[in-house]
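Hi all, posting the design record for the shared folder.

TITLE: backbone redesign
STEP: 1 of 1
STRUCTURE INPUT:
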């Protein structure tokens, strides 16, 4: 748990989905918050703005949005219950461009009956995109809740699909 003496640094990152608030401590990235969305974050007055302390995360997120990064290699420090952290770390194992259901996520953590609890933990993921909760969808294939809003979830999934499979208009077309 965080103590009073732990320094938390923050900065903002402009992205195609809007401004993100990044926060880290000495152990790693703690939070990524959407400028708009379901769960708004207010800055703790004890936090210190320091862009250099967030360069490690900024670089990889910029590469992700440019379609040049499919996995993240960052020190992470998400704070939550042991169950939440287990769910969040399992999110990191969902391959880029793939989706799974909440039921599948519950199965992957060894608790197939905990679908609702998994959904709640997924909804409280403090490091979205990097711990890709946007890749979790309903069992029927529908897009379900997302802290950044469904248009953002749709954008992220579409972006990953384009990188994985290309866009018809990005390919050279030869007419014989």
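Okay, here is what came back for every position:
SEQUENCE:
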């Amino acid at each position: 748990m965080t103590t009073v003496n732990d320094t938390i640094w923050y900065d903002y990152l402009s992205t195609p989905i809007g401004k993100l608030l990044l926060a880290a401590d000495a152990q790693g990235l703690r939070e990524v918050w959407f400028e708009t969305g379901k769960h708004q974050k207010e800055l703790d007055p004890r936090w210190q703005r320091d862009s250099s302390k967030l360069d490690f995360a900024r670089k990889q997120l910029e590469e992700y949005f440019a379609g040049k990064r499919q996995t993240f290699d960052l020190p992470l420090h998400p704070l939550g219950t042991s169950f939440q952290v287990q769910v969040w770390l399992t999110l990191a194992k969902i391959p880029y461009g793939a989706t799974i259901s909440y039921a599948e996520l519950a199965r992957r953590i060894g608790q197939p009956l905990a679908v609702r609890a998994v959904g709640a933990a997924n909804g409280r993921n403090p490091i979205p995109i990097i711990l890709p909760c946007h890749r979790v969808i309903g069992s029927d294939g529908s897009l379900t809740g997302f802290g950044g809003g469904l248009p953002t979830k749709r954008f992220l999934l579409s972006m990953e699909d384009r990188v994985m499979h290309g866009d018809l208009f990005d390919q050279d077309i030869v007419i014989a």
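COMMENT: The two ends are 65 Å apart (CA to CA).
Let me know if anyone wants the other runs.
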